[in-house]
Write a structure and sequence with these properties.
Length: about 625
C-alpha cells in the first residue's frame, strides 16, 4: 500500500490516530476496549509503530464524553458518580449481548431439566459441577477447575419416588367370607400424594402399602389400635401453628423423630446422636414415646406440612454417617391438603391405605465435594479479584428441580461469564466466577474457601451472591463509603430491562447502611463478610414469591421469570467488569474483634448459624 494511495486510509488512519491515542490514554485509567483499542493498548507500539511512520507528534487526548448513566441511591435517581471504571464501548457490548443474545434460560433449562435437583455429594451435583466447568471452558475462561472443599461420608441419590392413597373396597357376598390375602383388586387408587422425606435416610425396598392408622393420643387409644399397627402408616396429628408458614420446626422435629427411632433401633445412646445436652431429656421422652411403634412393626410415620408445600431438609449428622448406619425408620411429610383428604376419608369410615415407593440410593464413600471456579484474568492486577457467585447445590425433594434455589443464581453467574467473554471484556483485575456447593448444609463450600484462601482475602474488592430466586437484581446493601463505587458500577444496567407485568424499568438501588456491613440474607457471602471482605447478597426485586419454591416440591422451571434473569446476568457482568476496572478496591469497614457485635461469626451458636444458612 503506497502513501499517496493511502491518503484516504491515512485520513482514516489519521482519524483513527486520535481515537487510538485516546484509547491508550483511557486504558491508563479504565479497562481498555478489547475489540478496537485493545490492539492499540497492546500494540501501543503498533499504532506507535504506524504512528512513527505517519503519526504527528502526540496531541492532548480529547476526553470522550463518558455516557451519562443514572444511578439509584436510597431509591432516588442521581447522575452516576464519575469514577473511571470500565471502557464505555465494552460496557455497550456487554449490554448489547445481555439484552439481545442472553442465554441464561438455556443454562437454567439444562440444570433443571437435564440434571435436576443437586444435593451436596450427590451424583447429579457432580454432573452439574462437570457441566458448568465444560461451559466455562467452551466460553474461553481460564483457570477452570473443581475446587475441592471437603468430603462426604456417604453419597445420597434420591431416585424417582411415589406416594398414593388407596381406598380398600369392601368385599361383597362370597368374596367377603373368603378372607385370605389382600389382592390389588381390593384397592382403588384415589389420589397421588405430594411429599418429602429427610435427605440421607434410607427409603423403602420397593412399594410399601399399608393401612392408615391415626396416631393414638393416649395409652388407652394405643391399646385399642395396637393390633392394626403392624405394617401400618401411622398418621401424626397435623400441628398447625397460626402464623407459622415456613418450614422452621418441621424439619428439625422430623429429624428428631427419625433420629429417636434410629437410636431405639440401633441402641445408640442419645448423647451419641448429636443431640444437644440441653435437649437430652426431651429427646429421651421422644424415644420412649416412639418405642412401642417400632415394636409394633409399623411401616412408618406420616406427618402433615403447614400448607400445600412440603419442605425438604436433612437428618442431622448427615455428613459423618455411613450408608449402612443411616436411619432406616421412615417418616414422610405430606401436604396439608393431602392430610385433610386422608383424614376426612377416615372420618367417612373408609378403609384408607397409603403406598410409598421411596427409591433412595445410598453409597458409602468418601466422596469429594467441590466448588466450580473459573476466571477472566486481570490484565493489570491479576491477583486482585471481583467474585460473582451462587450456590449450585440444592435440596432434592420429590418434584423439585432445584430451580429458584439456586439454579437461578448459578445460571445468572454462568451467563455473566459468557456475556463478558462474548463482549471481549478485558478487566484490569481478575473476575472470578464461583459455583459453591454445601451451601444448604451450612455454607460449607464458601466457609472452606475463605479458610483455604485466607491469604488472598485482602485482595478481593467485592464478592457477590445471587441466591434470592428468580427476581431481578434490584439492590445492594452496603456501607456509606461504598456507595459511590457501587452506584457507578451498577448504573449502566439501570433502565435497560423492563418488567413485562407492569412495563416498569428494572433498577439497582444502592442502600447505604452506615459504617458497618449489615449481614443480610444467609448465604455464601456471609462467610466473606465475617472475614471483613465486602460480600453482597443481591436484593431480589420482582413479582415472584420466593417462598413458593424455597426447599419445596414446587421449585421447578415453571417458577423462572426470564426477563428478570436476563437483567440479573447482565447486571452481574456490568458490575463485576466495572469494579474490576475501578481505580481501587471497594473500601472496607471496621470489623469488630470476633465475639462482639455484628459480623463476628464466632459469636452465634452453631444451631443458629445452621438454621440461618438453611434459610436460603
Ligand atoms: Zn439458596
Amino acid at each position: 500500500m503506497t502513501l499517496a494511495a493511502d491518503s484516504s486510509l491515512l485520513r482514516v488512519r489519521a482519524l483513527q490516530l486520535p481515537v487510538a491515542l485516546f484509547a491508550a490514554v483511557a486504558s491508563l485509567t479504565a479497562c481498555a476496549d478489547s475489540r478496537s483499542s485493545e490492539s492499540a493498548v497492546q500494540g501501543r507500539s503498533e499504532p506507535a509503530a504506524t504512528a512513527t511512520a505517519t503519526a504527528p507528534a502526540p496531541v492532548a487526548p480529547t476526553k470522550l464524553a463518558a455516557p451519562t448513566w443514572t444511578a439509584y441511591i436510597r431509591g432516588e435517581p442521581v447522575p452516576a458518580p464519575q469514577i473511571e471504571m470500565g471502557d464505555p464501548r465494552t460496557i455497550k457490548r456487554i449490554l448489547d449481548e445481555g439484552v439481545h443474545r442472553n442465554q441464561v434460560m438455556a443454562h437454567l433449562t439444562h440444570l433443571t431439566q437435564e440434571i435436576g435437583p443437586r444435593l451436596t455429594g450427590s451424583t447429579r451435583l457432580e454432573r452439574a459441577n462437570e457441566w458448568a466447568a465444560s461451559k466455562f471452558r467452551e466460553w474461553g475462561l481460564s483457570n477452570v477447575h473443581q475446587d475441592k472443599w471437603g468430603e462426604v461420608t456417604a453419597r445420597f441419590d434420591r431416585g424417582p419416588s411415589s406416594g398414593a392413597v388407596y381406598l380398600k373396597r369392601a368385599r361383597r357376598g362370597s368374596e367377603g367370607e373368603a378372607g385370605g390375602a389382600e389382592r390389588d383388586a381390593d384397592f382403588r387408587k384415589v389420589r397421588d400424594l405430594q411429599f418429602s422425606t429427610l435427605a440421607w435416610t434410607h427409603g423403602t425396598e420397593g412399594p410399601v402399602r399399608g393401612r392408615v392408622v391415626r396416631m393414638p393420643e393416649s395409652t388407652e387409644e394405643f391399646e385399642a389400635v395396637k393390633d392394626q399397627l403392624n405394617g401400618a402408616w401411622v398418621l401424626r396429628k397435623a400441628v398447625i401453628t397460626p402464623g407459622r408458614t415456613d418450614m422452621r420446626g418441621v424439619g428439625s422435629s422430623m429429624s428428631d423423630r427419625v433420629l429417636a427411632k434410629h437410636g431405639e433401633r440401633t441402641g445408640t445412646a442419645t448423647k451419641d446422636l448429636g443431640v444437644r445436652e440441653a435437649d437430652e431429656d426431651a429427646f429421651d421422652a421422644l424415644r420412649a414415646e416412639l418405642r412401642p411403634y417400632l415394636d409394633a412393626g409399623i411401616a412408618g410415620f406420616v406427618s402433615s406440612s403447614r400448607d400445600d408445600r412440603v419442605w425438604t431438609t436433612s437428618v442431622r449428622r448427615w455428613r459423618e454417617t455411613k450408608a449402612e448406619d443411616a436411619p432406616r425408620d421412615i417418616e414422610v411429610s405430606i401436604t396439608l391438603p393431602d392430610y385433610d383428604y386422608i383424614n376426612s376419608r377416615i372420618a367417612d369410615g373408609e378403609d384408607v391405605h397409603l403406598e410409598f415407593d421411596l427409591r433412595h440410593e445410598f453409597v458409602t464413600g468418601p466422596f469429594a465435594v467441590y466448588n466450580t471456579v473459573a476466571d477472566i484474568p486481570g490484565t493489570e492486577r491479576p491477583d486482585e479479584f471481583v467474585i460473582i457467585s451462587g450456590h449450585l447445590d440444592s435440596w432434592d425433594g420429590p418434584g423439585s428441580q432445584g430451580c429458584t434455589d439456586n439454579g437461578t443464581g448459578s445460571s445468572v453467574t454462568m451467563e455473566a461469564a459468557r456475556i463478558l467473554m462474548a463482549a471481549g471484556a478485558k478487566p484490569k483485575r481478575t473476575i472470578r466466577f464461583i459455583l459453591w456447593t454445601g451451601e444448604e448444609q451450612g455454607l460449607l463450600g464458601a466457609r472452606s474457601y475463605v479458610e483455604r484462601y485466607a491469604s488472598t482475602l485482602d485482595k478481593i474488592s467485592a464478592m457477590f451472591v445471587d441466591d434470592g430466586g428468580t427476581n431481578s437484581q434490584g439492590g445492594l446493601s452496603c456501607t456509606d463509603a461504598m456507595v459511590d463505587m457501587l452506584a457507578a458500577a451498577t448504573a449502566p444496567v439501570n433502565d435497560k430491562f423492563f418488567d413485562s407485568a407492569d412495563g416498569k424499568p428494572l433498577r439497582v438501588n444502592i442502600r447505604p447502611s452506615g459504617t458497618r456491613m449489615q449481614q443480610s440474607g444467609g448465604s455464601d457471602h456471609a462467610a466473606f463478610v465475617a472475614r471483613g471482605v465486602p460480600g453482597f447478597f443481591w436484593d431480589e426485586i420482582g413479582r415472584a414469591e420466593y417462598g413458593r419454591g424455597w426447599h419445596t416440591q414446587f421449585d421447578t422451571l415453571e417458577l423462572a421469570i426470564p426477563e428478570y434473569l436476563k437483567q440479573a446476568s447482565t447486571c452481574s457482568a456490568i458490575t463485576a467488569y466495572n469494579l474490576a476496572c475501578a481505580p481501587g478496591l471497594l473500601p472496607r469497614w471496621q470489623t469488630e474483634p470476633a465475639g462482639e457485635g455484628e459480623g463476628g461469626e464466632r459469636r452465634r451458636p452453631r444451631r443458629d448459624r445452621e438454621a440461618e444458612a438453611a434459610s436460603n
